Amino acid sequence: MDENELLLRHTATWASAKGRTLDHDLLATALALWTGREGHFAQLWPIGSAETLLLQHWPSHEPIRGQDVEVLVATLETFWRFLRGTGRLRSDSAEPKALAKEARRAAPKMVMVSDDPRPSGPVTIEEALTEWGEALVEDAEFDRELQEEIDEHDLYEQSRHDETWALLPDSHDGWAADPPLEASAREARQSPFIQECLRFARWVGDGRRITNGVLRPEQVREAQVEFKLGAWEREFLARSPLAHTAAPFSSSRHGHVPAGLLGELDHLVTTRALQSLWNACAATDLIQVGSTTARATSAADRAHTRSPDDWAELGQEALITAVMTRHFFEPLEPVLRVLFPFLREGVDRVEMSDVRDWWWVHEVNPWAGLGLGILQAHRSSDRQADRLLWAMDDTGLWQRDGETLHRTALGMDVAMRLMSDPSAFLDVG
Predict the structure, then answer these.
(1) How far apart are CA 90 and CA 65, in angstroms?
(2) What is the pLDDT of residue 151?
(3) Which has the least CB within 10 A, 305, 318, 334, 399?
(4) Cα–Cα dist 155/145, whole Å
């Protein structure tokens, strides 16, 4: 009896006792694909692995029907919970709840990708809204259970990479003085992204009808025109780290690196710019989202007055949400390479060349081991760092002058928040 079959038997016994969904044939196929192609361990499931299995490995194996996708996702969640509950899940794996959330987000695209393993362009607005609405349902459950998982398994520490956190001041470095509150408030008021959030909330106005927690397609199209969201998404796509590769690239043929970590899920970019506005407005109470209607709050009124504390808080909450939304499954390290040094005494700027060099040799950089060739891999790594920083240029986290990113009070505030509350790293949606 091979190892997979033994795991299947133990999982079936556990699932029966717990009353959880398990389809033996689907799980057997999933394990065969996961362990057979690149030699993955059946007990090792890092962040992005669920997405890679569902959107890369499985579609190239065989098409799958919609109802089977739902059973597959439930079965995988049972398996991951079995691994965690019995101590078999390897320490460098993601948590079962995070993997299940990732799988449920990938599920709506699985049938489409099965028909076309390499999408030729972004999904439609309707498809993007379906994915968005289903993700919101999963987010609610994820948020309710996240603190329990953090307390039980110390997820804060698992979200930290030594090379990244070494950027912070230590006993040999001085900490920069806290920025004046007035400076943070002024920069929040002047942030183009914050101003667009306020304008977006006023556009929502007295009420916009929603379905499954998100705007309807005709309203999305109206917002894309009003806020020029398509221009941001087109530029984001043009900056893809994969754009220069000589031949069509697929992570499923180049090791076990999750597609999202490489920016290979760019076909899901539709509504990303809209979601960054929507999520930031919801997080800062500029809009209230009900079951059928979204409305602006009084905080969005032009006449609404804010203290410096209010502006600074608005800026921090909105920008953290923007980072998480715009980066999707891509790494946060290049952004932290800019923000964390701002907390050191005497560091008032960061050079793009330093960010690129640091990211290229970082322990979680995925590019060097993909078989692309050193020049292509290095260029992809640089392009990824460039794009992830470009995506935040309009926020006020820094002030760009060519290849130099200058420190801002608002960027220091956000760096402090991310340093003291790593739970922000645990939700990418």
Answers:
(1) 31
(2) 47
(3) 305
(4) 13
d(CA 154, CA 238): 38
For residue 230, pLDDT beyond 70: yes
Would you say 223 and 350 are in contact if contact means Cβ atoms under 8 Å apart?
no
The structural domain count of the chain equals: 2
CA distance to 125, 205, 408, per residue, from 341 (Å): 39, 40, 12
Report the C-alpha gap between 114 and 121 in whole angstroms.
Answer: 15
Answer yes or no: do 331 and 216 share one domain.
yes
How far is the first Cα of the chain from the last one, in angstroms, to the nearest whole number? 40
Q: Do both 99 and 165 map to the same domain? A: no
> Which residue's entry shows tokens 């919970």?
81
Please write the tens of the pLDDT for every residue from 13-36.
999 988 899 999 899 988 888 887
Q: Is the pLDDT of residue 268 over 70?
A: no
CA dihedral 261, 266, 269, 275 (to 10 degrees): 10
Distance CA 68, CA 111 (A): 10
pLDDT category at 111 given cuts 50, 70, 90 is: low
Q: Looking at the structure, do residues 108 and 174 belong to the same domain, yes or no?
A: no
Residue 218: give the domain boundaries. 158-426
- Distance (Å, rounded) from C-alpha 334 to C-alpha 365? 10
Distance CA 255, CA 249 (A): 12
Residue 71 corresponds to which amino acid? Answer: V
For residue 111, give the nearest of 62, 52, 63 by alpha carbon.
63
Q: Which of 41, 23, 20 is nearest to 31 (CA)?
A: 41
- SS3 label, residue 400: strand
Average pLDDT, the chain: 82
Whether the CB-CB separation of 49 and 256 falls below 8 Å is answered with yes
Q: Residue 381 in contact with residue 305, Cβ under 8 Å?
A: no
Task: Please give the helix or strand (H or E) that residue 406 lies within, else none.
Answer: strand 404-407
Give the DSSP letter string of 164-223: HHTTS--TTSPBPPPPPHHHHHHHHHH-HHHHHHHHHHHHHTT-EEEETTEE-HHHHHHH
Last residue of a domain, one of 55, 84, 117: 117
